[in-house]
Amino acid sequence: MDRKERYELLFNNINQYNSGEEGITRIAYSNEEQTCTHAFMRLCMAEDLDIRMDACGNVIARRKGKVESLPPVVMGSHLDTVYQGGKYDGVVGITAALEVIRRLNEDGIETDHPIEIISFACEESARFGVSTVGSKAMVGQFDKNRYRDLMDKDGITMEKAFALCALDFNSVEQASRADERFKVFMEIHIEQGPVLINNEKKIGIVTGIAAPVRLHVKVKGKASHSGTTPMNMRKDALLGASEISLALEKAAKSEEEFGTVATIGVLNVYNGAMNVVPGDVEFKIDIRSTSLNSRKRVLDQLNETIEIVKKNRQLEIESIEISSEEPVLLSTEINDVLKNICDEKNIPNQTMQSGAGHDAMNMAKLCPVGLIFIPSVDGLSHHPNEYTPLDDILVGIDILEAAILHYAIIH
Which positions are annotated as binding allantoate (predicted)? Predict the structure, then answer.
């Protein structure tokens, strides 16, 4: 079996763990995600890696170095998905990292530094509305009080989800490695956008990661009969939410030069019926940018609109901040190394920013970070039709392997 066939088998093996009929559904801390995680652990054991799972559910797989006291060179990504997601988001990073280890073992290469693979828990916000949970815990920024009672769509809290995986929520601070030394952290990921495909590039070298602020907004009006309540006497929670949504879109469009975006991806009308004026509506907002000032302007306009809608429509509106991340600039030194590797291998490449968040942005608090993008056909991601050609993944693995060797071997 050649390396291409071996990697394809690994990739398909990981993606068999799926609870959905369309796309891939492997939600954080679910049975499918946990089964997949333990299968990955067994694959790492087969490569003679030392395995452990921390208090947040992160998996750390370590390959010994000649000098164990040296800081590890780390690769990582995640195995969880959104609902009805694709096969590539996260999985490429984990399987690519394991393939790098397999190549080193196959070639009998010893490195001076230890090498680690980290499979981060709960990278996606799909279940609880907060993302990169595992890497937050690893850098010592897991907010237990804020996250404890966050609920999924089935009413299961994050604390309960931990317990169902035999994890102790109250011990999650034990996952912190903030006092440890790391040489570098590297992540390979599909772009999740159309830039590389459109520019006919094989590798994106990420210079910065945009960060979101996320809000949970509750709008309370008064449910009433649609036929007997005059239009000027209604307290329609859905129309209030709609007015806020359109104002948010306008605010984000005014910041296009900064690449700022805003999205309402969840909206629930409670006890809704065709003949009932909506009384209770909740929705969730995601605003993100690489510019904190731009993001703040959108947030300020949102808050102003909420006050106007409350007054004009006589509604009760509560806006709760779920999370707020800061944009991250990545290591210019690592990016220079990646650029040189690509050029030496004659791989078309470009620098770019990431509009999506990644565990890499948290790991930047511990060590220099490099983030490698590979193309996403049609820019699709978080979608069943998400696709990256196998040959493009293998190019990315070649670059990742070269970068890992650059940092793991003392020259």
Answer: 214, 275, 288
pLDDT tens digits, one per residue of 221-237? 999 999 999 999 999 99
Q: How far apart are CA 260 and CA 251, in angstroms?
A: 10
pLDDT in tens, 320-364: 998 888 889 899 999 999 999 999 999 999 999 898 889 999 999
pTM above 0.85, yes or no: no
Tokens of 379: 């820019």
Backbone angles phi, psi at 249, to 5 degrees: -60, -45
Task: Write down the H helix ranges in 183-260.
Answer: 195-199, 237-253
| pLDDT tens per residue, range 53-95 | 999 999 999 999 999 999 999 999 999 999 999 999 999 999 9
| Domain ranges, ordered by start, for the chain | 3-210+327-408, 211-324
- Which CATH code for domain 211-324? 3.30.70.360
Query: What pLDDT sits at residue 326?
Result: 84
List binding-site positions for allantoate: 214, 275, 288
Q: Which long-range contacts (CB under 8 A, 24 or more apart) does 17-23 make?
A: 20/83, 20/84, 22/84, 22/384, 23/84, 23/85, 23/86, 23/383, 23/384, 23/386
Helix (H) or strand (E) holding 403, with range, is helix 390-408
- End-to-end, the C-alpha distance of the chain in Å comes to 33
Residue ranges of the binding site: 78, 89, 124, 189, 214, 275, 288, 382
Q: What is the mean pLDDT of residues 273-290?
A: 95
Assess contact for 337 and 73: CB atoms under 8 A.
no
CATH architecture of 3-210+327-408: 3-Layer(aba) Sandwich (3.40)
